[in-house]
Amino acid sequence: MTRRPNQRLIIAIDTGGTFTDCVYRADGKLEVLKLPSTPENPAAAILEAIEKIVQRVGANSIEVRHGTTVATNALLERKGARVAFVTTAGFEDTLAIGRQARPSLYDWDLHRPAPIVEEHSCFGLRERIGPDGAVLHPPTKAALKELRRQVQSSQAESVAVSLLFSFANPAHERAIESALASLGLPLSLSHQILPEFREFERASTVALNAYLSPSMASYIGSLEKGLAKWHARLSIMQSSGGILSARSVAREPVRTILSGPAGGVIGALSVARAAGIHRVISFDMGGTSTDVALLDATGEPPTSTEGEVAGLPISVPMLDIHTAGAGGGSLAWIDAASALQVGPQSAGADPGPACYGRGEHATVTDANLILGRLHPAHFLGGAMRLDESRSRRALGSVGGGFRSVEDLAEGIVRVANARMESALRRVSIERGHDPRAFTLLAFGGAGPLHACALASALGIRRVLVPAVPGALSALGILHADLRREFSRTVMLAPGSPRINTVFRELEEEARKAFHAEGSRPTLTCAADLRYQGQGYELRIGWGTGAVTRFHRLHARAYGYADSTRAVEIVTLRVQAVAKTRRPKQPQVALKRGDGQSARIASHRVFEEGRWRRAAIYDRTLLRPGDRFSGPAVIAELSATTYLPMGWAATVDGSGNLLLTARKSKLNSGVPR
């Protein structure tokens, strides 16, 4: 292999349930590589992809940016480490008790997920720090020695430490760290992971971090070992939409639970801004699930510290993403009431949908193939031929008394669409936003197949399908900034001189962390405020007039405000960001055309109960300014777009597909 002098290569990789997507720039051009995922060893597909890319283009310096599902899968499948949980004596049952809030008040069959730490592995230390940070009862050497013995005898593989009010004074957690250091176990300390109040949420977050640490450290170590031959540097995508060094992620894997979906949101924002579209709903449909988010491209993506995954609270910053259990690999089945269901079980990458040649069960992908929305010879740019006869056999085994395989396939697509429509309503209508005022930005390997039907159901007139839609999450990872938030709960009045002191300490902590990453961050200060006596806060950018802005935001959020009532500053936050340089995307002049030069075959599709004539277009041959009407199938390497009757497609100056509908194809009664 000949290395090109002074070439710096950044490769972004998003590992999904079915495919591993890679994007990189070579000679100023964005390139895409798509390989089947290797679920038993995700690093295998990644290293294979990097080998292919480096052989193709060469480089002197390589950086690998990775969106990973390792932490997510370990949590969902309950395959994490055996954790010892250490807290203040008397609070050993914090994780078991949780909160008394019930998400469904009258549901007698509601069951909370079991704690990830077993009862016999929860240990209490006789110590106490007050809410102001004062030491009320220091731990004795004998107590620390006994704690060490208990943890060692528990056969724990990782340790989570969350003492009362350690965010106000971490001295006792540091004493535990010293006492347990000789055990050689990964230690997750709450004053480092989450120095904030709310005991259950903090304990849960730290316990989850400990639960995921060994598997993530092992995975990162394996990946870095494989990357050593290229001297490549590894960074990981966080749930907050920023990247972080692999070294930092190995210590705090809880920050990566929405790693892959976060890349999709950043990619969607990048595309929307370049296209001059401000209000979008991102719709990322992959092989196993669908992720949606409501976005304003004029600002930063919304984040929350009140996340929940698999029923367990996680209080680190996460992008505001809603997930539905429907994807291209979702399995179709008939329930006990003889009703057709789709998902949440998935065929995954192995064996995959029946049409891939190994699976036996019907999936959404098989249904789309039977309906003609996928073409057997034009999948993955022709690199993989789909087996239609195998799909027919798989659908035939579903049962349910349908008149034909085509009717069943259409039913499968409709049921999957209903699940995804519910997710889109969740982030828009249920939060007071009219989806008709937004553009649906569809991506993922399966998103463009379903986008027009979902837009019609919600009354959305415009759908944007970006270039390389199946790899947009990887593109978002490529464009992501180095980002991290530093916080501390303080419980102060707005005029307290301690506010500036804490902000300076947080800023210094941020600078030190980014110095270790080799970057200089831009720092932004914010605060969580509430009226005294309230249980929830609103986040406000800190500066002159912050309290006045809090009153206005409170009135907008809750319908009232009281400027005479005392305001309390609960938590101070500093967000540190080091921007990633993004090349400007050139706009190509539009030249009116009808897309005929990209039309490669005639085809037929099953829509609304009967077969119809359609055309197949090769997206790589479409040119800016081309316009044509459906029904049509638009094939490319990373995804396939289905354009139904009543919809038209236009190619813009950036190579995006803008799909627009006639009014008669839209559902005008969106709210229900």
Structure description:
Among the domains are: 81-213, Rossmann fold; 482-578, 2-Layer Sandwich (Dna Ligase, domain 1), CATH 3.30.1490; 596-665, no CATH class. It is 29% helix and 28% strand. It has 16 helices and 34 strands. The strands form nine sheets. An eight-stranded mixed β-sheet has the order 19-14-13-22-23-34-33-30, sandwiched between helices. Strands 3-2-1-4-11-12 form a six-stranded mixed β-sheet, sandwiched between helices.
In short:
By secondary structure, the protein is of the alpha+beta class. An 8-stranded mixed sheet has the order 19-14-13-22-23-34-33-30, with helices on both faces. The chain has a 6-stranded mixed sheet with strand order 3-2-1-4-11-12, sandwiched between helices.
Keywords:
16 helices, 29% helix, 8-stranded mixed β-sheet, 34 strands, alpha+beta, 672 residues, Rossmann fold, 6-stranded mixed β-sheet, Dna Ligase, domain 1
The Rg value, from CA coordinates, equals: 26 Å
What's the arrangement of strands in the largest beta sheet?
19-14-13-22-23-34-33-30
Instruction: Please count the beta strands (DSSP E, at least 2 residues each).
Output: 34
| Helical run tally | 16
Sequence stretches where pLDDT stays below 50 over 5 or more residues: none
Largest sheet at a glance? Answer: 8 strands, mixed
CATH topology of the domain at 81-213: Rossmann fold
Give the averaged pLDDT, no decimals: 90
What's the architecture of the domain at 81-213 in CATH terms?
3-Layer(aba) Sandwich
Helix content bin: 25-40%
The N- and C-terminal alpha carbons lie at a distance of: 60 Å
Coarse morphology: globular
Top-tier CATH class of the domain at 81-213: Alpha Beta
Secondary structure class reads alpha+beta
Strand content: 25-35%
